[in-house]
Amino acid sequence: MTFEVGACPWGCVVGSWYERSRKLLLATLDYIELHNQAIANSSMAKKTIQIPVFQKAYKTIDYPRDAEGDLCGMIHPDLQDKDFVKEMEDGDPLFLMLDGTTKVFSKQDYDVPPEEPVYPFFVNEAAYYEKATALMLAKRVERSVDVINQ
Fold first, then answer.
1. Which residues touch 47 (CB under 8 Å, ≥6 apart)?
2. pTM for the whole thing?
3. Could you tell me the mean pLDDT of each successive run of 10 residues in the chain, 150 residues long?
4. 52-144: what fold?
5. Can you say whether residue 37 is alpha, beta or left, with left for phi > 0 and alpha for psi between -120 and 50 degrees?
6. Which helix (H) or strand (E) holds 101?
7. Is 90 helix (H, G, I), strand (E, B) or coil?
8. Could you state, in order of their start, the residue ranges of all structural domains in the chain?
9. 148 with 42: CB under 8 angstroms?
10. Are 95 and 101 in contact (CB under 8 A)?
11. Residue 122 carries which DSSP code?
12. What is the pLDDT of residue 98?
């Protein structure tokens, strides 16, 4: 099982992310214990809930580059830190160009069907600069999960 609670700058220790990670880990261990008890005691009440799951979809979006391949734009401030929470719609600011103009998002540019909601993730991740990735697009789907009803 893997949890990513970041984004945390590389090489840094951030107390609030440590606290969130610890809380998540302890909640996971509590869930596993309850799950094991439920297996041993089939009379424990369970319920089914819906949870959102994000799946990578469509093209990866690179930073705008000039003829020499150098960056000529950056993630627009309105998009920064909006991983998984902001649905990308046509006309949303995507990149702030070095000349001060804004390049906007268009589903057509990335082969996304017009009716398909998509969400950004891995937005402006430092480790992805060398991979020519400014962000990726995900579609949100709902999944049914059985949980123990306390």
1. 146, 147, 149
2. 0.72
3. 70 84 91 81 79 88 95 96 92 97 96 93 87 93 82
4. N-terminal domain of TfIIb (2.20.25)
5. alpha
6. none
7. coil
8. 15-44, 52-144
9. no
10. no
11. S
12. 96
